[in-house]
Amino acid sequence: MLRLIAVRLLAAVPVLLVVSLVSFGLTLLVPGDMAAELAGPSATAADIARLRESLGLDQPLLGRMLAWYAGLAQGDLGRSVLLNQGVGAAILERLPVTLSLAFLGLGVACAIGIPAGLIAAKNVRRWPDQATMGASLIGLSLPDFWLGLLLIWVVGVKLQWLPTGGFIPLSEDPLGWLRSVAMPAGTLALTQLGPIARMTRSAALEVASSDFIRTARAKGLSEIRVFARHVLAGALVPILTVAGIGFGLSLGGALVIEQVFSLPGVGRLVIGSVLRRDWPVIQGGLLVIAFVFVLVNLLVDLLYLWADPRLRAQS
Amino acid sequence: MNFLRRPAFLVGLVLVGAVAIAAIAAGWIAPFDPVKNNYRYRLGAPNDLYLLGTDRYGRDVLSRILFGAGVSLRIGLAVAVLSGLAGASIGLISGWWRPADAWLMRVMDGLMAFPGLLLAIALAATLGPSEATAIVALTVAYTPRTARVMRAAVLVARALDYVEAARAVGANTVRILAKHILPACAAPLAVQQTFVFAVAILAEAVLSFVGVGPPPPQPTLGSIIADGRDTLVEAPWIALAPGTVIAMLVLGLNLLGDTLRDALDPRMRGMLR
Predict the structure, then answer these.
(1) Distance of CA A265 to the CA centre of its chain
(2) Is the bond leading into B217 cis (omega within 30 degrees of zero)?
(3) Is B60 helix (H, G, I), strand (E, B) or coil?
């Protein structure tokens, strides 16, 4: 068991290596002089030279790379040029907003999408199946940011039920928090429902056609018992996969939805930094978001071991 | 080819075809110049002259959408083709030549650890916003998924009896790849790239929405929605209409992809891209 866990942990190492290399290499693609661009049009040559030195841009490539990894090893992601704040601190400050949005959206989407997918699988090629699949196809074809604007217009502007943007921390006012995240999380959930229902349906169909289900039927179990005991247990691993993929989609979606609802999360920070050309923040944002993604997938991998005895038996 | 007569396929074809024809004909059918300001008619509601109203510079929203749809289709198609070529090459090498497999797939895993959109936004901003960089950024973001699909297809194909037979009689590698492996992988690749086409259109809209797409005054569907966001209370029609066009395109492409896949392999019915 420990060996299995170790193998999975080790598998994450090359992925993190590629992630950190890509985040580092991003600035190599900047056309022209990065320091001059950051310093702005009014900067003097001395200002630019100072900025270049403080960013380490006067060092050779290998030196910059070593400095980048030395910083990472100490949890130092560099300094934001414009926020005058450490990148790590700036991101950590905003990460809870993004994560709570992603998990809330995913949670709601799973709570509705997984049962919907199971119902569709149970009634395959009959109307509940066709209705669910049709609705989920439409759902996954809608641009999420546009759906968010639509909700703002209907629920926020016309009906005035919920605030149109802004964020209230959970610790300050729980009800206010819920009101401020209800619409963005709802938007996210609406766009995640489709993929989750579709993946759950195909996973359940796959399990339902497997040998142990035929055996369960053959020994005379009732349909309900077959479904509740055997199909569900067998579908646990695929459903975990669904949740894992869903989290990736949800995280990516949350980054954009924050922008629409003016929530102070990592996505808004990175997109703001993109427009202000604050490279260290963009690099750090890429790195942290990918790190969270790898971490959650690792967790899903470990949960597989718990959910599927066949995987444990391999060791 | 009976899938050609399935209603879902026809609906998809009509949705994509209608938008594509309107976009190609934009130069002739657009009632106004999409970038010409008309300050006497700012934020005008839809009427007989301006069918979808005007934006805050008095530009005709319908004309802008017609030209913007063209940008979406161009970028989406380019990304589908380019990531298809890149992904197919990587997947082919990975699936056929095993020593390269572990290395290539680790790189693809690393790229897939970034949300595709975030990577594309960062790349597009780094390279400097334009139509070409949007294509490059989205191609980099979506190639790993195609490479995975291609690799899986190659692994299935190389175990087929006739491929083994070809190897046994001593056919050379290039011949086997060209005559047997590639044709066997063409179908899953085509299906995957139909979905990439759809996802790329959605992603390009986001790039434009956050301001790293093709720069103004070029109208794009995402940038029209961004304009409409600022005037959502006074002029909701600006944001409403372009989103509907994106949804039509993406839904149409998803329907085409779904029916193609079901026709190829009934067991894959309902699976995600």
Answers:
(1) 13
(2) yes
(3) strand
Helix (H) or strand (E) holding A80: strand A79-80
The answer to whether B140 and B87 have CB atoms below 8 angstroms apart is no
The confidence score (pLDDT) of residue B272 equals 38
- Looking at residue B54, what DSSP letter applies? B
> Which stretches within A123-262 are classed as H helix?
127-141, 144-151, 174-208, 211-218, 223-225, 232-261
Q: Which pLDDT belongs to residue B271? A: 42
Whether residue B224 contacts residue B217, with contact meaning beta carbons closer than 8 Å, is answered with no
Q: How far apart are the CA of B259 and the nearest CA of chain A, in angstroms?
A: 12
* pLDDT classification of B269: cutoffs 50, 70, 90: very low
Smallest Cα distance from A199 to chain B, Å: 6
pTM above 0.80, yes or no: yes
How close B109 comes to chain A (CA, Å)? 6
Inter-chain residue contact B271 with A199, CB threshold 8 Å: yes
CA angle, residues B231, B233, B238, in degrees to nearest 5: 50
- Kindly tell me if the per-residue pLDDT of A34 is higher than 50: yes
Q: CA-CA distance, B222 to B243, in Å (whole number)?
A: 8
Q: Residue A88: CB partners within 8 Å, gap ≥ 6?
A: A75, A76, A77, A284
Residue B14 predicted with pLDDT over 60: yes
User: Closest chain A residue to B249 measured between Cα atoms?
Assistant: A141
Sign of the dihedral through C-alpha A20, A26, A27, A29: positive
Average pLDDT, chain A: 86
Taking the C-alpha atoms of B108, A145, B192 and B69 in order, what is their torsion angle to the nearest 10 degrees?
A: -120
Segment A89-106 shows an average pLDDT of: 92
Tokens of B200: 């790329």
Q: How many helices (H) and strands (E) does chain A have?
A: 14, 2
Look up the ipTM and state it: 0.89
- Cβ separation A290–B114 shorter than 8 A: yes
Long-range Cβ contact pairs of B45-52 (< 8 A, separation 24 or more): B45/B235, B45/B237, B46/B237, B52/B237, B52/B241
Residues paired with residue B60 on neighbouring β-strands, in sequence order: B54
The verdict on a CB contact (< 8 Å) between B126 and A29 is yes
Out of A153, A274, A293, the one facing B122 most closely (by C-beta) is A274
Q: What are A279-314's pLDDT values in tens digits?
A: 889 999 999 999 999 999 888 888 888 887 777 776
Tens digit of each residue's pLDDT (9 = 90 or more) over A151-161: 999 988 888 88
Average pLDDT, integer, range A217-236: 83
CA separation for the pair A306, A237 (Å, rounded): 9
Tell me the two tokens of residue A129: 């199946």
Using CA coordinates, name the residue in chain A closest to B112.
Answer: A290
Output the six-digit token pair for A63. Answer: 């030196």
Q: Which residues are registered as beta bridge partners of B145?
A: none
